[in-house]
Every structure is written in structure tokens, then in C-alpha cells.
Specification:
By secondary structure, the chain is mostly helical. It has helices at 8-14, 17-32, 38-46, 71-93, 126-135, 138-151, 155-158, 163-181, 223-242, 268-274, 278-296; strands at 56-59, 62-65. The chain has one domain (8-296): di-copper center containing domain from catechol oxidase (Orthogonal Bundle). It contains 11 helices and 2 strands; from the N terminus they run αααββαααααααα. Helix 4 packs across helix 8 and helix 8 packs antiparallel against helix 9.
């Protein structure tokens, strides 16, 4: 059955430079914080963008997610705010066949007609090529993605982990892999650092047609981003059910980036969408300064980074930990 088409107004909204830069910088700063040198951290601190809960830590072979500091809640919360904004806009648009963001149920497998997996391509990097070939393979889907999907829906396992650990595990396993599984070869790919503009991102990449799922600057412009993140968001409800949480989650992690002191975190996307006014001008100026710092740092995070985390369901399950309080 043909899938409903994401309204063009949503694509245009997500393609705005403010949304692109904020999504990109939010991922970069929290994932790279422990990899920056002290000068870079101090410059980021001065702009109010120090992440309270870094998402990754350095290891001997690369990086590993931090499972016990509620950074996973930040991941779930921030993207829930993105979905809330899109749902508000969808309600205004009133397209009958696309009233709200709905996640995959289940994650589409190999051979799915509506969500076909694009083939791997030669990226010019042997390590990247290997990652793509593995991630897009039928074997990886059946031996790794499906077990992850089952684990993140298993009530017994969910009752043994905090929401923060769940979010961190989802982000650095199935989420990152699905971004790369469903991405396709691009005629032009945005470089990590543009040699002509090393401290900025050229406005040519703001064109709505640049919607590559493998780049945090563009992934949320792609229609399938919302199917993936709708699935991720549904895992919050699955966790709540497994842990007897019937009200709103008592969120410990709500970091969405630097916000005006008198604005709540959930106002982030209203701020980005405002388009004008003193607060919007101040926020855009802050983002420009932060972008220069991040672009000049020499540190990058990607969906295709190799992350040190068990690829299969744990053989042993820990005793249940303290549950989130009912708000």
C-alpha cells in the first residue's frame, strides 16, 4: 500500500537553517563534549552550551555511549519535542492521510516495497564502505536489528533499565544504524569541513532537496526520519507500560541546548519557528558563534561511527533498578 506523503510545508519548515543548525549542533556538542580540548569546552561554556549530560566517552578504540547519566533521556526528550512541533503543524495543515507522525510498526524488513533499503555505494573510505555493507545487509537485519527491536519491546528487560539507559542504547544501536540503513548515495555530500568556509556551513546545503539521512544537518528533512523517530518515541510508551508509569514521565534529562532563561525546554521549536524578534535574533547569533567553535574543533560525530556496545541481547539481566516516579 502506498504510503502517505509528508506535506511539503513540513519539509520546508525542517529545511530552515535555524532548524538544521540547531539539530546538527545539539548532536555534535553532546556527543563530542568529552573529545574536545579544554579551550573548545571553555568557548562552548561561554555560550551556555555545555551539555549537562555528555552522551559518549572516549575508549581505546573509539567511543562508547554513557548509559548511566540520563543522557539517553535528553535524546528521547529533544526528539519528542521535534515530533510535537511537526504534529502541531500537521494539525494546521489538515492533510487527511497524514494527521500526525506515526512510527514504523514494525521496522520494515528487507524487500519492503514502501521502504526499500538503498544499496551501499563506494564512499572512498574502506571503513565506511564496510559499515554500510554490513548495516544494509539482510543478515544484519535478521541477526541484529530484529533482536534489538525485540529487546526494546520486551517488558521484562524494560523493567530492568532506566529510561535514560534505554534512550542511550536505542540512540547508539538501532537508531544510528537505521539512519544509515535507509540512507542513499548522494550526488553531493556536505563535507565535515568546507575548505572554503572552514568555520561555517554554506547556505547551499539549506536547499530542501538536501535531506540525506546520514547527516544530522539534513536527516530531519527526509520523510523517513519521522517514521524512524516515531518508532523511537513509541518506545517511551512501551517503557512506561513495563514500569507502571501511567502519567507523564518524571524527566531527568530535558536538555535541548541553550535556551533563554525564562523559556521552558519545550518552547525550543516555537523559538526556532518564530523567524524574527529579539529572542530569535539572539538565538541565531548564539548558534552562529557556536557553529564556528564546533567547525574549528576538528572533532566530529556521525551516525556511522563505530560504537562499543554489545550488538545482541544481554545473556543475563540485571535486577530491576529504581523506577522513574510518576509525575
Amino acid at each position: 500500500m502506498a504510503q502517505p506523503i509528508l506535506p511539503q510545508a513540513i519539509v520546508a519548515l525542517m529545511a530552515q537553517r535555524a532548524h538544521r543548525i540547531h539539530h546538527y549542533l545539539w548532536h555534535e556538542v553532546r556527543n563530542s563534549w568529552l573529545f574536545y580540548n579544554e579551550a573548545t569546552r571553555n568557548a562552548i561554556r561561554a555560550l551556555g552550551w555545555e551539555p549537562p549530560r555528555p552522551a559518549r566517552r572516549p575508549t581505546a578504540n573509539g567511543a562508547a555511549p554513557i548509559l548511566d547519566n540520563d543522557s539517553g533521556e535528553d535524546f528521547l526528550y529533544m526528539h519528542r519535542q521535534m515530533i510535537a512541533l511537526v504534529n502541531t503543524k500537521l494539525a494546521e495543515i489538515g492533510q487527511d492521510d497524514y494527521p500526525k507522525v506515526e512510527g514504523w510498526q514494525p521496522i520494515p524488513g528487507s524487500g519492503d516495497v514502501d521502504f526499500a533499503v538503498p544499496p551501499a555505494w563506494d564512499t572512498g573510505d574502506a571503513g565506511f564502505n564496510s559499515f554500510l555493507q554490513e548495516t544494509k545487509s539482510d543478515d544484519f537485519f535478521t541477526q541484529t536489528i530484529q533482536p534489538w527491536e525485540a529487546q526494546y519491546g520486551d517488558a521484562a528487560w524494560l523493567s530492568s533499565v532506566s529510561l535514560g539507559e534505554l534512550g542511550a542504547r536505542i540512540e547508539f544501536t538501532i537508531h544510528n544504524r537505521l539512519h544509515m540503513r535507509f540512507c542513499s548515495e548522494q550526488d553531493n555530500m556536505r563535507p565535515d569541513v568546507d575548505p572554503n568556509r572552514p568555520d561555517d556551513i554554506d547556505v547551499s546545503w539549506d536547499d530542501p532537496t538536501y535531506n540525506w539521512l546520514g547527516d544530522t544537518y539534513s536527516s530531519h528533512v527526509h520523510p523517513w526520519f519521522w517514521k524512524l523517530h516515531g518508532w523511537v518515541d513509541d518506545r517511551i510508551e512501551t517503557w512506561k507500560q513495563a514500569n507502571g508509569v501511567t502519567g507523564e514521565v518524571a524527566w531527568q534529562g530535558t536538555w535541548v541546548g541553550n535556551m533563554p532563561a525564562d523559556m521552558p525546554p519545550h518552547a525550543l521549536h516555537a523559538l526556532l519557528t518564530a523567524g524574527r524578534g529579539r529572542r530569535m535574533h539572539e538565538h541565531q547569533d548564539n548558534l552562529k558563534k557556536l557553529l564556528k567553535i564546533v567547525q574549528s574543533s576538528g572533532v566530529r560525530c556521525h551516525f556511522y561511527d563505530r560504537i562499543e556496545l554489545p550488538m545482541s541481547i544481554p545473556i543475563t539481566r540485571r535486577a530491576a533498578r529504581s523506577k522513574q516516579r510518576i509525575a
